[in-house]
Specification:
Length: about 160
């Protein structure tokens, strides 16, 4: 079984309930081992939208990366996600951040998640559940990557574990 780290986000509707529903759905395709705290984060790229709630999950799965991606996309659709504009508002977003020490570069899937090493909104919750996990391209731990980012106030803890 591979250790996989997911990033979850929501900025439409009952954001916390959306995250809870996503974790329940993920339990159907992976064995959940740990859940991060919930963080409120400002949107990137497209600022005219509500703030996001973000969290991370550490799990184990028997699914290979592309099969896992297909399963995750099906879960998002089942949970009500509708594709709109890139970086726009979304009911739920489930990203595969890390998959063991694998590097995947396919048309439909890139692991580690692109720009993970630069994004506090992804690294802060990821550090809660995988501070010692190594980014296979940056060759630094999640904790080291997070510590290397400049301080900011746009990523705030709002809740303990969901």
């Amino acid at each position: 079984m591979a250790i996989v780290y997911f990033g979850l986000g929501s900025n439409i509707g009952d954001r916390l309930a959306n995250l809870e529903a996503a974790m329940d759905a993920l339990a159907g395709i992976a064995r959940i081992e740990a859940r991060s705290r919930v963080y409120e984060t400002e949107p990137m790229h497209l600022a005219d939208q509500p703030n996001f709630l973000n969290m991370a999950v550490r799990a184990r799965t028997d699914l290979e990366p592309l099969a896992l991606l297909r399963a995750v996309k099906a879960l998002e659709e089942t949970l009500g996600r509708v594709e709109t504009v890139r970086w726009g508002p979304r009911l739920i977003d489930i990203d595969i951040l890390l998959y063991g020490d694998s590097v995947v570069d396919e048309d439909q899937l890139t692991i580690p998640h692109p720009r993970l090493a630069e994004r506090r909104f992804a690294l802060a919750p990821l550090a809660d559940v995988g501070a010692g996990a190594c980014h296979p391209l940056a060759r630094r731990t999640v904790a080291e990557l997070l510590a290397s980012l400049p301080p900011t106030e746009d990523v705030r803890v709002i809740a303990g574990h969901v």
